[in-house]
Amino acid sequence: MKRTPLLILALTLIIVAVSAVGFDYWRIASKVRIEYPPPPPTIKIGIYTNSSCVESVSEIDWGTLYPGGMKTCYGYVRNEGDVPVLLTLSTETWNPPEAEQYMALNWNYSGAQIPVTTGINVEFQLTVFSNCSGITSFSFDIVITAEG
Fold first, then answer.
1. What is the mean pLDDT of the chain?
2. Residue 77's beta-bridge partner residues?
3. Element (H or E) spanning 16, and its range?
4. Domains contained in the chain, number
5. Which whole-number Å values give the CA distances from 101 to 62, 136, 141, in the listed order?
6. Which of 104, 72, 110 is nearest to 88 (CA)?
């Protein structure tokens, strides 16, 4: 009877040993690297009176214009973001609204990409059409949009 527990233990060890021969396992070491998406590009421009970029421009005073006349004002647009940009020009918020049909704003920007930390000289030219009448003062917003 003392042999029974030993015999059971021996049989259990043999079964475990034989069973282990039938199993195969792999141990795979792994490392984890977490990646985060890069921050979105920063698109930013500054508009200044000249290339020294000391005095920013927030308003252009066109002075006195007559029907059929035009005036040119100068500025400097600098890319202050971290990707090259392309620019577009538009106007909005004309006051009075009918002034928009009698005037045109253009600039000499060529459409070339502006590299990071560089800028370009620009000429804004406002033309008042010769058929303009009844407008004695006006204002509008110049919108320069930068896209990267």
1. 89
2. 47, 120
3. helix 3-21
4. 1
5. 17, 14, 15
6. 110
